[in-house]
Amino acid sequence: MNTAQRTPAKLPRLGQMFALAAIVGLGASLAACSPQESTAPTAGASSTTAPSSSSSPQSPTSAVTTPSALPTPTSAAPTQPAKAPALCTAASLKGALDDSGGGAAGSIFMKLIVTNSSKTSCILDGYPGVSMVPAGTIDYIGAPAERDPAAPSNGPITLAPGQSSAAVLRYTQAGNYQNCQRVQAEAILVYPPSATDSLEIPHPLTACTNAGIKLLRIGAFQP
Questions:
Q1: Is it the case that residue 64 has pLDDT exceeding 80?
Q2: pLDDT of residue 82
Q3: What residues are paired with 109 via a beta bridge?
Q4: What confidence score (pLDDT) does residue 16 get?
Q5: Are 169 and 102 in contact (CB under 8 A)?
Q6: Are the C-beta atoms of residues 170 and 216 closer than 8 Å to each other?
Q7: Band of pLDDT at residue 72, cut at 50, 70 and 90
Q8: Which is nearest to 144 in space by CA: 220, 202, 215, 95?
Q9: Residue 67 predicted with pLDDT over 70
């Protein structure tokens, strides 16, 4: 068989091959042009699918409040008990004698009155110390006053500023004692209960220098 007779027979087969290649190429072109599903999230998708900062679980460090951020515990200060007033001193008092109570059997009953002249309350509790003295001294004449067991203390007395308390002072006249060595006293010296200072109340009385003769008897302060 000669060459001129084989060539026409191959032409139809080559045309089929070119046609098939064209169809495949067209399919590839169409596939390239069709929309592809994107696997990467878009910016809009990330804003809707990604958990927000408010809903995302916090890390252990941010979830635990640090001790410095905790509120400082506060506690009410303990109530302090009210401080009791101090004992009255002579410096906080002024004194007076009221001898209008009369007397009997050679004795005169007087009221020894003390008034709180300070700006704070103070307490009187018990018997005062009482003596007869020359004016301006603390050198008592004769024996100091005896305590009267018939007029005991009924307990502490709180004197607010300006308030007063009284104790009964009995003075036995010096003329009742024949062996009395008489001397004129010009004042009564008063030591408030438990105080170490004294106040002077001018009041002339006849005293006995004899230490064994007791002319004064004092009761405890009463409200």
A1: no
A2: 73
A3: 170
A4: 55
A5: no
A6: yes
A7: low
A8: 215
A9: no
Residue type for position 189: L
Token pair belonging to 88: 């009255």
**pLDDT value, residue 73:** 59
Q: Which two tokens stand for residue 69?
A: 């951020």
Beta strand 199-208 with 182-191 is antiparallel
Read off the tokens for 81: 């008990």
Query: DSSP labels for the chain?
Result: --HHHHHHHHHHHHHHHHHHHHHHHHHHHHHHHSPPPP-SPPHHHHHHHSPPTTTSPPPHHHHSPPGGGSPPP--PPPPPPPPPPEEP-GGGEEEEEE-TT-EETTEEEEEEEEEE-SSS-EEE-SPPEEEEE-TT----BSPPPEE-TTS---S-EEE-TT-EEEEEEEEE-GGG-TT--EEEEEEEEEE-TT-S--EEEEEEEEEE--TT---EEEPPPB-
Please name the residue that has the structure tokens 């203390």. Answer: 153
How does residue 77 score in pLDDT terms, banded at 50, 70 and 90?
low
**In this structure, how many other beta carbons lie within 10 angstroms of the beta carbon of residue 216?**
22
Is residue 87 within 8 A of residue 192, CB to CB? The reply is yes
Take residue 210 and report the two structure tokens written for it.
């004899």
Whole-angstrom distance, CA of residue 206 vs CA of residue 173: 7
CA distance 200 to 90: 9
- Selected residue with higher pLDDT from 145 and 16: 145
